């Protein structure tokens, strides 16, 4: 029997584990997934948690967290996957041994690194100290609480209006958050009976354009929607300093804010740098070949944000998207099976030319093909269907339906 160890329970890690469960019998392999948390985080809806409206978080914080934190116990129920909640502290590639806190050791024959990502600050002064980060469910819930507290203070006359937001980074995460914040804060202001201009939201992007990877037509749709929601978009505005209540634009103005939310970028887990003998690129990602194997350790595979894979067509790294990590997880599971059967591994052929961007309320822009884009309400419907399809791929049908129903009930209170 071979031991297969997966470190990280994100999109790529979970898919690898579930596919291996289908392909291998318990006599052929032991499959273990290790994660520091006891849940799988559905990151595409993190912005919804930060901006959800209408819940008393003193009483319903757990309910809000459960909308995107899916217990591994439910995902791996009735499977051969062994889930272990632990924090890994070292990996010895020569001994094929992994150690966690508490001196628990895991031996492996095949290792899958699916460690996810961390916030990238680009060395900008003050980000660590003063900006709200946006990578975990705890950070999203904390932001939600603070937003509601600010408007309560305004309702009591304890602070002036407007409440000012700066969202740094106009990639998909920043755009989704800025749009939903506009809807959320409008609802809060109505409940608090606040009049006049209650909210000011600025979306700040260092690049010349928001979403540089999309076409001009789609960018125009998204920008128009943001402006209609009252979001001010500032392009070509790199930030050189973040303070307790301001950001300083390089060669530009100082912008004051009550909330500075950093969505400007991600980087591979810094833990990878601690693995002696693992070949990394200049940004700290493990380099992989066409089979998603480490370039010099064929028994080690990488998926998602842990790995850098150059698209043969563009010679550029494939983007960090959830469904890309899922596709890579499928390839890794298949290739572990093929290696065990002494067959040639399958080449990974990346596909990442479709996307859906929610932009506040029941509105999304969906690119489904080179010349096919859907926007507005039907774009939002498509996003919900895609989310449900994913939930159903990792959960039994009844649990997937229950979770999506709860998400719609909680997250549409802004609309």
General shape: globular
What is the gyration radius calculated from CA atoms? Answer: 22 Å
Helix amount: 25-40%
Number of separate helices: 11
Strand order of the largest sheet: 5-2-1-9-21-20
Query: What's the main sheet like?
Result: 6 strands, mixed
- The helix-and-strand class reads alpha/beta
Q: At the third CATH level, what is the topology name of the largest domain?
A: FAD/NAD(P)-binding domain
How would you briefly describe this protein structure?
The protein has 415 residues and is of the alpha/beta class. The chain has helices at residues 11-23, 46-51, 57-66, 72-75, 127-130, 137-155, 172-191, 216-228, 322-340, 377-394, 397-411, and strands at residues 2-7, 29-35, 39-41, 69-71, 81-85, 88-92, 97-100, 104-107, 110-113, 117-119, 163-168, 199-204, 231-234, 239-242, 246-249, 254-256, 259-262, 266-268, 286-287, 293-294, 297-302, 307-308, 355-358, 364-369, 372-376.
């Amino acid at each position: 029997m071979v031991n297969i160890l997966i470190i990280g329970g994100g999109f790529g890690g979970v898919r690898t584990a579930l596919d291996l469960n289908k392909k291998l019998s318990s006599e052929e392999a032991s499959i273990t997934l290790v994660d520091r948390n006891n849940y799988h985080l559905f990151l595409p809806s993190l912005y919804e948690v930060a901006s959800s409206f209408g819940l008393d978080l003193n009483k319903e914080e757990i309910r809000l967290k459960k909308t995107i934190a899916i217990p591994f116990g439910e995902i791996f129920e009735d499977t051969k996957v062994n889930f272990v909640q632990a924090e890994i502290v070292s990996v010895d590639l020569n001994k094929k041994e992994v150690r966690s806190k508490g001196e628990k050791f895991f031996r492996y024959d095949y290792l899958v690194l699916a460690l996810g990502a961390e916030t990238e600050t680009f060395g900008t002064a003050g980000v660590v100290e003063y900006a709200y980060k946006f990578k975990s469910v705890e950070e999203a819930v904390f932001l939600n609480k603070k937003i509601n507290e600010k408007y309560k203070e305004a309702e009591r006359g304890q602070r002036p209006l407007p409440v000012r937001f700066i969202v740094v980074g106009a990639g998909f995460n920043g755009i989704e958050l800025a749009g939903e914040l506009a809807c959320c804060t409008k609802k809060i202001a109505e409940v608090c009976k606040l009049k006049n201009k209650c909210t000011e939201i600025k979306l700040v992007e260092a690049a010349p354009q928001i979403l540089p990877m999309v076409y001009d037509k789609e960018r125009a749709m998204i920008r128009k929607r943001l402006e209609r929601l009252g979001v001010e978009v500032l392009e070509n505005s790199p930030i050189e300093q973040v303070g307790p209540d301001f950001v300083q634009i390089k060669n530009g103005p100082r912008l004051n804010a009550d909330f500075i939310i950093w969505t400007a970028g991600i980087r591979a887990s810094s833990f990878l740098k601690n693995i002696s003998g693992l070949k990394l690129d200049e940004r700290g990602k493990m380099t992989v070949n066409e089979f998603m194997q480490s370039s010099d350790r064929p028994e080690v595979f990488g998926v998602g944000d842990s790995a850098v894979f150059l698209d043969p067509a563009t010679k550029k790294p494939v983007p960090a998207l959830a469904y890309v990590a899922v596709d890579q997880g499928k390839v890794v599971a298949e290739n572990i099976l093929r290696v065990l059967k002494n067959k040639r591994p399958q080449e990974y052929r990346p596909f990442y030319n479709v996307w859906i961007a929610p932009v506040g309320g029941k509105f999304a822009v969906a690119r489904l093909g080179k010349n096919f884009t859907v926007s507005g309400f039907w774009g939002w419907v498509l996003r919900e269907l895609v989310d449900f399809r994913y939930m159903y791929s990792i959960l039994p049908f009844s649990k997937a339906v229950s979770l999506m129903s709860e998400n719609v009930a909680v997250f549409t209170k802004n609309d």
